[in-house]
Fold this protein.
Amino acid sequence: MSYHFLLSSWGTLGNLSPLLTAGRLLRRNGHHVRVMADPAMRGEIEAADFEYVAWRRAPIGEAADPTDFSDMQDWFRKALFVPAPAYAADIRDEIGRMPTDAILSLDILFGAGLAAEASNVPFALLSPHVSFRTLPGMPPITSGLSQPKTPEERAEVDAANAGLAASLNPLLPILNQARVDLELPVLADFMELFDRPDRLLLATSQAFDFQADSLPDNFRYVGPLLDVPNWSKFSSAKSSQALRVKSWQAPWSAQSDRPRLLIACSTGAQGQRDLVQHVINAVGTIDVDAIATTGPNLDAADLTAPKNVHLIQGAPHDLVMKDVSAVITQGGHGTVIRALANGVPQLILPMARDQAANAARVEARGAGLRLPPSASHAEIAAAINRLVTEPQFKAAARRVGDAIRADIDRSSLVAEMETIAALGRAAHQQLRRGLLRGTA
């Protein structure tokens, strides 16, 4: 049976890419998929041959995804809570425009859940990272803590989980007012938001993640969603003049026996220019060859590079990673998981969002190292030297990578979405039959 799915995205291309991978899996099984997202994402969505639907009331661009993370509570208020009714109104309009058997939305797009509940449409939240919902015994996404092993560490994790909820609960009245306006029950705690969807789909690997004491009934690991985004299939030259190429060509000599590195910048705008330049300068002090992919939010012309570092906007990371000894990254989930899936150790210098949580997991698995963004050139160089000379890092990355690829192959995402869509369609048909009997 074929179903109609509405996918809704928020923020950066890094968030959109796993959602499009989910859409391709659903389409491959014969379902109809359309994608609602920021206008800046339209090209990527249409390149994937999906129908694009624009936000009309909801914020777009930097207004939707502010780059200032100095006050995280204020960032959450402006980006996620205040706009939720506008996102909900746009999604409800779209539900009315086209048949919708189920909704799949990014987990922090709170308005999607409002719209689905108010419209009686089944919905799933997709977490393209480690869990935003706090879980017993697991460090929260914002903490950078590791899996607790002692009573003292467990107390620290419990306090961090309580602290995340406490920081967000003062914002809950904003969402509760929207729920009242839509005649939905109010919530007593922020984390109850994640109990409302029919499914909470975690698009990561259990082999990568820490282990919680227990998982909610609607929680499912569905494996990473790692299709290569269209924008990264092309690269731009070191100069400000764009030179687009349709295939990856390594910039280093095949005869060179020097270690090769990939410096992979975040796809999101996080004010990362100074950190990227700092890393490039550090790599310039050691005997390696490297490429730095700047991504869609950083212009290569704004950076300077030594002779051993080649600057390009984008490249297919799966191909590049087969040719390098280590990856240096801020620690976004997609890059981290892709590096592990390719068996490549990594150095992570986390800035914000989920990056410290990903770094903690890589470090705990023995597949890489973590440094603060303030690390010196000498510290960065020393960490890189360890990654390319000490074999245990690559061996650990390969072990985790094998498990990640197995999780990708057995993903249950399509089956989970089909299950909730079938229930939703049956409920609507039963309601329709009841209405028809009532008018007979």
Summary: The two ends are 30 Å apart (CA to CA). Residues 234-246 have pLDDT under 50 and may be disordered. Residues 413-439 form the longest helix (27 residues).
